[in-house]
């Protein structure tokens, strides 16, 4: 069975991806800053990936926040996400990872909206993505 590493695996999106993959019987390793792996640190991430030797890395790591936080710290959020993406691609390549799935970080809200939206659950989002 192929080993899968989910970066940001203890966050909202990553935790749901980990749970879904585990339910399907995949060997999944979740990592994040909470587990001691900072994906912004190429040396740290490369060492981790070389140790685990996954066939697939799914990137769910992101620096996100609510509307107010994003408005107050837009440069910090952008810089961290840019560094995350850059570092993850380099570390995966240098560690011999066969496949990298990169989920782009974002936090999108409309400027004005009259409708009440009910976002799909993470599992509904995954099913929708599979059907595309």
How would you describe the overall organization of this protein?
Helix 2 packs across helix 4 (about 75-95). The chain has helices spanning about 10-25, 40-50, 65-70, 75-95, 120-130, and strands at about 5, 25-30, 55-60, 100. It has about 130 residues and is of the alpha/beta class. The protein contains five helices and four strands; from the N terminus they run E-H-E-H-E-H-H-E-H. The model has no long low-confidence stretch (mean pLDDT about 85). About 45% of the residues lie in helices and about 15% in strands. The protein is globular and about 40 Å long. The chain has a single domain (about 5-105, about 120-130), classed as Rossmann fold (3-Layer(aba) Sandwich), CATH 3.40.50.720.
Low-confidence parts: none
**Which structural class is indicated by helix and strand composition?**
alpha/beta
Name the CATH class. Alpha Beta
| Spatial order of the strands forming the largest sheet | 2-1-3-4
Relative strand content: 5-15%
Mean pLDDT: 86
Number of domains: 1
Ends distance:
26 Å
């Amino acid at each position: 069975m192929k080993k899968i590493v989910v970066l940001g695996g203890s966050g909202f999106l990553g935790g749901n991806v980990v749970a879904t993959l585990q339910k399907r019987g995949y060997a999944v390793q979740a990592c994040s800053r909470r587990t001691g792996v900072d994906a912004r640190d190429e040396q740290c991430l490369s060492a981790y990936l070389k140790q685990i030797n996954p066939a697939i890395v799914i990137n769910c790591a992101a620096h996100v926040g609510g509307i107010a936080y994003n408005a107050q710290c837009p440069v910090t959020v952008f810089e961290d996400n840019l560094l995350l993406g850059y570092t993850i691609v380099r570390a995966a390549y240098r560690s011999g990872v066969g496949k990298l799935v990169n989920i782009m970080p974002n936090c999108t809200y409309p400027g004005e909206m009259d409708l009440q939206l009910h976002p799909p659950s993470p599992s509904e989002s995954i099913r929708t993505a599979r059907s595309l």
